[in-house]
Write a structure and sequence with these properties.
The complex is a heterodimer of chains A (about 550) and B (about 180).
Chain A lengths: L1 H14 L13 E14 L14 E13 L2 E10 L15 E12 L3 E8 L1 E2 L7 E2 L1 E2 L4 E2 L2 E11 L2 E12 L2 E2 L3 E10 H4 L8 E13 L12 E13 L2 E10 L14 E12 L2 E11 L43 E12 L11 E13 L25 E17 L4 E12 L1 H5 L7 E13 L5 E11 L6 E10 L2 E9 L11 E11 L2 E10 L2 E5 L2 E5 L2 E11 L1
Chain B lengths: L1 H17 L8 E4 L4 E3 H4 L7 E6 L4 H21 L2 E6 L9 H7 L5 E4 L4 H5 L7 E5 L5 E6 L5 H13 L4 H8 L1
Parallel strand pairs in B: 3-4, 4-5
Antiparallel strand pairs in B: 1-2, 1-5, 3-6, 6-7
Helix pairs in contact in B: 3-6
The chains are: A mainly beta (about 550), B alpha/beta (about 180).
């Protein structure tokens, strides 16, 4: 590792002595990188459950440096957590510290790509393998090893990889091996290059080795998962489907049962100018795979089960978020986008966009394997079910309507209504809690004072008789060239406990120039997704000052 | 360790002043599922190219691209600029990108970066993040976030790059 880094330094130092050569890109060194640091100063606030931290100030920072020369490139990432911000995966301090958790080197030419070091990869829709990073959530399950990608012929691609996943500053116990192949017939067969009909197939196979160590049960050393996918298209129609199967994999996620796992998803879409329709369905049973059978939460996940529900960004709409249930779920979604044309009655001068969305998720039907074994008993087969068997328990349902309209050069509005059913116990992992039924309304209006100065106002309201009751949220954001200022309050006015009717009040401002951005906020914040000053990010709960600096160079 | 970090940063800082950033070679998918190369899609006969990273769940991204969409025809007529929108939506919503974009009538070339490979290679921290490439595929200017009216500055930069002006000199003058 040290030798690798030393070599990188030498390359950089030498590159600074070379004169820049014009012309062919193969002769030029390219250097780039980025940096981000989030710091928070925490005040204790018992009313909202905010704890004081001994350090007073916590921070998450990282910096990437990358160099490329012709077909070669290499990079390194430094990360520092002194100490990790609250709300990020830390597992009792495992994440704290400073180090170099990612380094890699890559060679790419027309047909071949080889990567050694840390890399990210996804096979198909991720059902068998997804290694990725999501800094705002603290997820990074990069694979340290080697990966080769090869284009056998136009439209025929294969990939192979081997390695161990990142686990904070260490590596997972298990070793991953995987291959993926894909054929896009339209690219492979010349006469189909421009055909209206599109057809592609793909398949992946992933195997995890982890020496079994259980004193009571006989666990498999190797767990394999495989998937096949078919993609069809005709003009504006598109159909994407994937089926995955995993052999028996007793793990902490499934209470150490010997059932195999299955997942099936289908996505059908139609789009043309001014109209888009999406229909999806997903059925999952026991499909969690990790590099360590004893891992939990977001550690060393291998399989990725895309959520079927919509991604919400308004704070109150994202209040009760849905998370995939790898132990079993069936979901369906219908989404519809339409733009009323400019000049039409409903479209107005600039056009009006409407989005309709409906999604529903149930448990899957499980039956006991025999009369004396309850469903999910450790060390047994677990339960019986069959593909597409849907249970009666509703996990989640949402109906959403959103209308965006530009009224004039100065006025723009976005109005949304959402009806939500949320199975709190299943989705939050509690017991005895009421299911939440809520109606949520949002009105957002932007007024352009001049071409460069604007004021945006947002009012959101949630009406519910369960959990913490009603909420109302107001936000004002003023923007001018390079600067933005915000004021925000989220008030839990309907909390059944009168003493807990808290105002989550927040002020902030920021500066943006080129690829650089700095933002300072002060106040109380609930966990959620926030769009402020032009950027959307996930934000954990806090009370105090928060400073965020980010730069791309 | 500290000496190493210092040496790296110093070497990097020196190199950065001498070399521009070229777009790296990364695989992306177009809306029809075809695998494309990032260096191929930015070809535009020596004219400027805007590469805009966005996500369907990112409201400021939608505002930025809507503003660009309304001005695209005029911008393209005047400077020959091509706008490429790269979606970082992951498997949860990547299949929604086509219908989402088509319904809005955006005329850009749209590509899918479902696992963030291109986002990482371009060192993007958050979306929206846009890069302005000169005719040779080098990054001439970049911009993060979107504040109302930012498209005016973006167009100024596009015009300068189309005219062959060096943006580094202009930035030095401003300071």
């Amino acid at each position: 590792m040290k030798k690798f880094l030393f070599l990188l330094v030498v390359m950089l130092s030498v590159s600074s002595l070379w004169a820049q050569k014009d012309g062919k890109s193969e002769n030029k060194f390219n250097v780039s990188g980025n940096f981000q640091s989030d710091l928070q100063y925490y005040f204790e606030d018992q009313k909202i459950g905010a704890v004081a931290v001994d350090e007073r100030l916590l921070s998450n920072s990282y910096a990437n440096f990358m160099i490329s020369y012709g077909k070669f490139s290499a990079g390194v990432r430094f990360e520092g957590y002194y100490n990790t911000l609250l709300g990020f995966p830390n597992s009792g301090g495992k994440n704290d510290g400073f180090g170099v958790p990612s380094y890699w080197a890559n060679f790419t030419n027309d047909k071949l790509e080889v990567t050694v070091g840390h890399f990210y990869e996804q096979f198909g829709n991720g059902l068998t393998l997804r290694s990725y990073e999501e800094k705002s959530l603290g997820i990074d399950n990069a694979i340290l090893g080697a990966r080769v990608k090869y284009t056998i012929a136009p439209g025929v691609n294969v990939k192979g990889l081997i390695g161990k996943q990142r686990y904070y500053w260490d590596l997972s116990d298990g070793i991953l091996r995987g291959v993926d192949g894909e054929i896009q017939f339209n690219e492979m067969i010349k006469s189909l290059n421009d055909a209206k009909f599109r057809f592609g197939i793909g398949g992946s196979f992933v195997s995890k080795y982890q020496k079994e160590d259980n004193p009571i049960y006989n666990l498999p050393n190797n767990v394999a998962t495989g998937a096949g996918r078919i993609n069809l298209g005709y003009s504006g129609f598109s159909l994407i489907s994937e089926y995955a199967y995993k052999i028996n994999d007793p793990s902490a996620d499934n209470n150490y049962i010997y059932r195999p796992g299955q997942a099936f998803l289908i996505n059908a879409t139609y789009s043309q100018k001014g109209l888009g329709v999406i229909l999806s369905t997903k059925w999952v049973d026991n499909m969690s795979l990790r590099s360590d059978r004893n891992a939990t939460l977001s550690d060393v996940t291998v399989s990725y089960l895309p959520e079927i529900t919509r991604n919400y960004t308004y704070v109150l709409q994202a209040f009760y978020p849905y998370a995939s249930q790898p132990m079993g779920e069936w979901g369906a979604k219908a989404e519809f986008f339409y733009k009323f044309k400019k000049g039409s009655k409903l479209g107005g001068k600039y056009g009006t966009t409407i989005t309709l969305n409906y999604s529903r998720v149930h448990n899957i039907k499980k039956t006991a394997i025999n009369d004396s074994t309850p469903i999910g008993t450790t060390g047994t087969y677990g339960y019986n079910t069959s593909l597409f068997a849907v249970g009666n328990e509703l996990y989640y349902q949402d109906i959403n309507v959103e209308i965006s309209k530009k009224w004039s050069k100065k006025w723009y509005t976005n109005i949304a209504y959402m009806n939500l059913y949320y199975n709190y116990n299943v989705l939050m992992g509690t017991a005895g809690h009421d299911n939440v039924k809520a109606n949520i309304g949002v009105i957002e209006a932007t007024y352009k004072i001049t071409d460069k100065y604007a004021l945006k106002g947002e009012v959101q309201a949630m009406f519910t008789k369960q959990d913490k009751g009603n909420w109302i949220l107001g936000q004002l954001e003023f923007t001018m060239p390079n600067w933005f200022f915000t004021v925000f309050d989220n008030w839990n006015y309907g909390n059944p406990d009168k003493g807990a009717r808290v105002h989550y009040f927040n002020v902030g401002f920021g500066y943006v120039k080129g690829g650089n951005r700095i933002q300072l906020t002060y106040g109380k914040q609930r966990e959620g997704v926030m769009c402020v000053g032009g950027v959307c990010r996930h934000v954990p709960a806090s009370n105090g000052f928060a400073l965020s600096i980010s730069s791309t160079f | 360790m500290k000496k190493f970090v210092f040496a790296m940063l110093f070497a990097f800082a020196v190199s950065a002043t001498l070399y521009s950033q070229e777009v790296p070679q990364v695989q992306l998918k177009d809306l029809k599922g075809k695998v494309v190369n990032s260096q191929d899609i930015i070809e535009n006969d020596g004219k400027p190219v805007m590469v805009c990273f966005f996500a369907t769940w990112c409201k400021p991204c939608i505002k930025e691209l809507t503003a660009f969409s309304e001005a695209y025809e005029d911008w393209a007529d005047e400077t020959g600029v091509k706008i490429i929108a790269v979606s970082i939506d992951d498997a949860r919503s990547t299949n929604s990108v086509g219908p989402f974009v088509n319904a809005r009538g955006w005329e850009f070339d749209v590509y899918l970066d479902a696992n963030g490979d291109f986002k990482r290679a371009m060192n993007v921290n958050n979306v929206p993040h846009s890069f302005l490439l000169d005719g040779k595929g080098n990054v001439a200017w970049q911009h993060t976030s979107y504040l109302e009216g930012d498209e005016a500055e973006t167009f100024e930069m596009i015009k300068k790059v189309a005219a062959g002006e060096s943006l580094k000199e202009n930035e030095a003058e401003k300071e």
